[in-house]
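Contributing new records

If you add data, match the layout below exactly. Sequence lines come first and carry their own label; structure lines follow with theirs. Keep one chain per record. Anything else will be rejected by the validation script.
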Amino acid sequence: MGKIANRTLAGAGALVLAVALAGTASYAGGHPKVTAPTLTGWASLPAGTFVPGSEPSGALATGDLHGFTTPFADQPVQGFSGIVKNRDGTFDVLSDNGYGTQANSADFLLRVQRLAPAFATGTVDVVGGLNLTDPNKQVPWKLTRDDRVLTGADFDVESIVKAADGTFWIGDEFGPFLLHFDRAGRLLSVPIPLDGVVAPETAARTGVPATTSSSKGYEGLAGSPDGRYLYGLLEGTVNGDIPGRLRLNEFDTRAQKYTGKRYAYQLEATGNAIGDAIAVDRDRFLIIERDGGQGATARFKRLYLADKRDRDHDGLLDKTLLVDLMNIANPRRLGGFGTTFTFPFQTIEDVVILDDTHLAVLNDNNFPFSSGRTEGQADNNEWITIELPERLRADRNLLR
């Protein structure tokens, strides 16, 4: 299939728990033991990982495929754009819209993958997953498939929150929309638009003028600790806003509508983008901000702690640099890397809190296009854990 060996679904059942326990061993514990952000775990899922017995995919993918040949016989497990932690040690990870555009992703099935990292062996097992569907015809416009299985031509899903009842809230970039799915991946309600923000994909369908650029909708979605509110962070600036200023919108899950409260996040450079946003407590968020470089051109890949209380009264979320992902201490030389570890990927779109002093960060490998780790070779999905020198003091509800 390509330069990277094809990898298929791992066995489930008892393996899930065994792998989960192996994975958590490297970040268990409480008190910080480091003076700088330090790599404590590294694992990798090969780029050529597919869901066996699924459906062909990638027929319209063109460009530098880095040794792979399309169409693929099955659906790739790739493109991680959001992550949530499960209590059994596994993680639900969102695959995004496919091959980069609406036009070439109609045969990519939108899916939540269930993964279990095993840091002792540097591997990641795929132990399950579910496709996203709309069997009850909540989407009022025509979908790509008559069976109403959702594809990358229907939505560009980029962010995910798991509610206490097991349902999923997912942020989309083509609307931008908020999408609510049940535990089986079935859409529960009509896609919820954001007033005043129209992506080009929705503009083409409705005739309403676009107010933002393509692929600049909800890249981050954070859930409040009590589950009452969602905070959706746009990836790009809305037309007429200050360049590099991104809107963070508050949504009430009980009322099923936006509250009207809006906050602003300022990028460090107008050419940057955000990769993810998750909650730390009722006021603070972890936000990935990155440039568009990869490999030798990667310069700016950072994780910020952002506070909506705006203590300096400048109208913006207060930002504190938490981790420079291009400069992580690696005294144990994990993954076979040197004492300074870098995460030089074009898109880094996943962060999750493991405990009050440890985080996990994953890249979106844009399979098979990105080549940030080894020039000329399709990127794997790398999964790292980082110990922080100070406690996050996160809300206890988010540490369960």
